[in-house]
Amino acid sequence: MNTMAEARLQTQKKSSQDGQETSLWSSGFGMKLEAVTPFLGKYRPFVGRCCQTCTPKSWESLFHRSIMDLGFCNVILVKEENTRFRGWLVRRLCYFLWSLEQHIPPCQDASQKIMESTGVQNVISGRAPGGAGEGQVPSHVRKEVQRILGHIQAPPRPFLLRLFSWALLRFLNCLFLNVQLYRGQMKMVQKASQAGSPLVFLSTHKSVLDGILLPFVLLSQGVGVLRVAWDPRTCSPLLRALLKKLGGLFLPPEANLSPDSPEGVLARAVVHATVEQLLASRQPLLIFLEEPPGVRGPRLSALGLSWLGLVVQGVQAGIVPDTLLVPVAVTYDLVPEAPHDTCHEYIIDARSCWGSRQTLEQLLQPIVLGQCTAVPDTEKEQEWTPVTGPLLALREEDQLLVRRLSWHVLNASVASSAVMSTAIMATLLLFKHQKGVFLSQLLGEFSWLTEETLLRGFDVGFSGQLRCLVQHTLSLLRPHVALLRIQQGDLLVVPRPGPGLTSLARLSAELLPTFLSEAVGACAVRGLLAGRVPPEGPWELQGVELLSQKELYCQILLLLHLLPQDLLLLQPCQSCYCYCQEVLDRLIQCGLLVAEETRGSQPACDTGRQRLSARLLWKLSGDFTDSDSDDFEEAEGRYFRLSQQSRCPDFFLFLCRLLSPVLKAFAQAAAFLHRGRLPDTESGYTEQLFQFLRATAQEEGLFECADPNLAISAIWTFRDLGVLQQTPGPTGPMLHLSPAFASRDSQEKLGQFIRQFICS
To answer: Where in the numbering of this chain does the Phospholipid/glycerol acyltransferase domain appear (predicted)?
Structure first.
C-alpha cells in the first residue's frame, strides 16, 4: 500500500542582491511558453505485488490488473458530499461531521483476558522458567502485571479518536496540498481482510508524522482503529499517555532485560499476551520496519523486529490460523521535520539462499590484499541490527525467520514506494547538472527520467503538465537551487554549493532503488575496465574491449559483497548468482551491453544444440547450491561489448554516479585510516570520520558524501571486512586497526579496490 504527501509551500517573493536571481511565482518563468500535453496517466506500472516464490497463493488470489484503473484519491479532501447531510452549514462543518461519521468499533478493556492468558498465569504461578517462585505473593505479581500492561497500552477512547481525527484533518490540510492513496491497493487490502485474518501493516519510516498519518488514512477507509507500535525514544511521557489512548502500543523497558531475569520474563509474557489478544480480536496493527528518521544506525529497526517476532509467535502458537502482512510505503515531496504477504504461508513456503554464508572478511579480505583472485560464489553474512527485547526469547531459527521476513517485506515496501518529483529533480541536478542547466533542457530530461522510472515498474507520485510540475518542484527545492535569468529569456538552474548538495543527495537516494541493478552493473563494468582503459579515455576505446560474462559475474559479486545490505535490500529467496544474472539482463535491456558473437562460439540465441540430457537448463527459483559455480564456467564463452549508441556514454556515467556517494565515502574512509586516532570508541571514531568527510567536502566539493549515516556505514563495513577490530575497553568496546591493514600498503590496496568502481 502506498501513501503520498505533497508538501504545501508558503511562498514568498525573494529578490537576490545582484538582481539576477529570479522568482518562479505568479509571473511564470519569464518567457513565452507553448502548450504541453500531459505526459503522465497513459501508463501506470503494476506495483505492490508480493513474491511469487515465497507466497504463491497470495500472488495468485489478491492481485488483479483491474486495480490499476482505480487511480488515486485525496484522503484529506473532505467536502459536503463526504457526509450524509447537505446545506450551507454542512459545508462549513464538513470536517467535524465527517469525523463523527467515521466507524469506530467499540474498544473493550482486554486487561482481564491478558491476565488470564496461559503465559502470564505460568509466570505468576511460578511454573515458567524465571517466573515467580514459591513464597512470592501472587497479588504483588498481579499488580506488577497491571503496571506493565499500563505501560504497554490503554483502552482507546472513541470520543478522543473522533476529536483527534477532526483536528488532524485540519492540520494536514494546512501542511499538505494533498495526501494521495492508491485506491487499487486499498481495495486489495479490503478484499483480503474479508477472509477474517488480522491485518499487520509493515511500513517504511520517513517522518515522525507517519505514526499519526497512517492511522488517519486507514480509519478514513474503514479499516478501523489502527494500533501503532511506537518507539518510546520519539515520545515524551505526556505524548506517550495521549498516544496510548489513541491506540498506541509501547514496549516496556523490562522486556529488554536478559532472558533469565524474572522481571524480563514477566514483561515479555505480558507483551506476548497483549499481541495474542490483538490478533485474536482482529485489530489491525502497524509496525515500522525502519528506524525512526534522524536515528543513526542500521536501517532495519530492532524494535520492529521485536514486534514482528511477537506476531510470528502468535501465528505459530495457533492463536490465529493466518495473518495478512501488508507492506506500506509513505513518501513525501519534502519530509516535514521539527502488496500483501500472508504470514503462515510465508513460514511454510519461505525459501532462503542464506544457508551457507561467509563473513565479509572471509569473502573480500584475501581479494583486497591480493592474496587470491577467485571470487567465492557464497552469500554474505551481514546483520547490523542487534537482537533485543522479546526477540531474545525466540529460538535461533525463529529469529532468522523474522529477520528474513522483515527484509522481504521491507523490500516490497520500497518497491511499491512512489517516486516523487523532488527525488527526480534532485537526481538530475546532482548527478547530471551540478554546474547548472538551462530550464528548456531540464524540462526534457525531467520527462525522460520520469518515463524511465515508470518503465522500470516504479510508480510516481505526481501528474499534470510538465511545466507546472517542474515549476512546483523547483519551488520546493528553492533553498537548494539558484535560478538565474539570462538574456535569451531562458532560466539557468544551478544547485547551491555546500549543504544544499547534501540535501539533494538525501532526496536523490529515494530514486536509487529504481536504477539500483543498472547502477551496480555499470559500476562493475567500470571496475572491469579500470585496469584496461584509462578512465578519461574516449567511449569508442572502451567499447572495443570484450567483456566475458564470467568476468562480469565476478565483478558484480565483488561490488555486491562490498555494498551494505541496508542499501541493496536483497530478497532472502534470491541468491547472489540470481541477482548477478538480473543485473546483466538489465544492462542488456537498457542497451548498454550488446552480445558479441566470437568465432567458434555458440550464438546466444541458439538453444537447439544445447544438451538437455546432460544437465537441466532450469531449476526452481531459490534452489541454488555450491554447484551453481558451474554456471560461471558455462558463461565463460559469452562476451559483450559496450554499446556505441550516442546516448550510452551519458547514461552509463549517470548510472555510475548514482552509487558515487556511498562509494566515495568508503574511499574517503580508507584514506582516513592512517589519519584517524585509534583506538577509539565507535561513536568517537564515527565523529572523527564525519568531520573528515566535511573537511574533504569543503576542499574537493564532495558534499554528497558529508553524511553521518555514510560514515557509520563505512565504519561498520570496514569492521565486517576485518579492517577495524573491536576489543573490550574500560568505557565500552574500542575500535583499532587490524594487523592486516596496519601498513600503508594494505590501506592503499583497500582504497584502490574501492576506487575501481568509481567513475569520475
So the answer is: 199-333
